[in-house]
Amino acid sequence: MTFIPDFRLPLKEAANALWFIFDRGRLLVKIRNVSCVVPETSDLKPDQSALFHKQYLGTLDGRPCYTAEIAGDSQKAMDLESRDLRALFGKLDENLIWIAGRANQLVNWNQIHQYCGSCGELTEFKTDERAKICPQCGLINYPRLSPAVIVAVLKNNKILLGRNKRFKLPFYSVLAGFVEPGETLEQCVKREIHEEVGITVKNIRYFGSQPWPFPDSLMIAFTADYAGGDIHLDGSEIIDAAWFGKDNLPKIPPRISMARQLIEWFIQNQEGTCA
Q1: Does 104 fall in a domain?
Q2: CA distance 209 to 258
Q3: How many angstroms separate the CA atoms of 153 and 268, rounded?
Q4: Does the structure show a pLDDT above 50 at 273?
Q5: 28-77: pLDDT as tens digits
Q6: What would the mean pLDDT of 123-128 be, rounded to a whole number?
């Protein structure tokens, strides 16, 4: 599947358009046995008047995609059910998951920029780019992205994994943290690792990136080598951390996440199948 992002509304709304509709942060879907699908325009009957804050997302294999919010209990009239995005991993096509994530970010951005942060005037969508502008003072707001680094730290054929107290499920993951103003990504890697577990790292190497719409992160992944120090937990975020070999890994994050990709890279590297 090929998704082409765009903000310019088509001249005519297609009957087979896909709608990523949110009710208080939960995506509306059609339930089909054990899987879920995103509703089409024809599923939004008897009418679309309950939808508000509509935005155009682009096309998926030529099919227009929209996002919107819904008012009240209108979802019941459309025979749709709301689901948390994370709960849809494995139940909704992965391409649709990422478009839903994009939609969720745009919905959140629009919600918090209804009014100008400078003068309080009601904002409007710009027509020449994805942005909102204040008609009174001209302040422009773009969709928010919060860059964060995520790092696989290696030492003697082991990987450093930690358990964050905010994790809802009992798994361990590679360490991550948000980039601060005036900081390079590499500086952020060193700072976050030292702050969270007290060690230093070297040989920082770029691995890849992934949007993570919970609510608006961009995960930038690195690998790094242990340089020195002993593990000392920060006491505020990380409640446990340790070095793990490929044969004694704890429960780890789901496959769709960048954290899982880093851990699987480590496993493959230990098996000699990854450069």
Answers
A1: yes
A2: 7
A3: 15
A4: no
A5: 999 887 789 999 998 887 567 789 999 999 999 999 999 999 976 666 66
A6: 96
User: CA 27, CA 36: separation in Å to the nearest integer?
Assistant: 11
> Can you list the alpha helix ranges (DSSP code H) found in 63-213?
74-77, 94-112, 185-197
- Residue range of the domain that includes 59: 3-112
Which residues are within 8 A (CB) of 42 and not within 5 positions of it... i.e. 6 or more apart? Answer: 15, 16
pTM: 0.89
By the 10 Å C-beta count (0-12 exposed, 13-18 middle, 19+ buried), 223 is classed as buried
Same-domain pairing of 191 and 252:
yes
pLDDT, position 26:
93
Strand partners, 28: 82
Residue 275 included in any domain: no
Q: Are residues 255 and 217 in the same domain?
A: yes
Q: What average pLDDT does the segment 1-17 reach?
A: 91
Total domain count, the chain: 3
> With 0-12 CB in 10 A as exposed, 13-18 as middle and 19+ as buried, what is 126?
middle
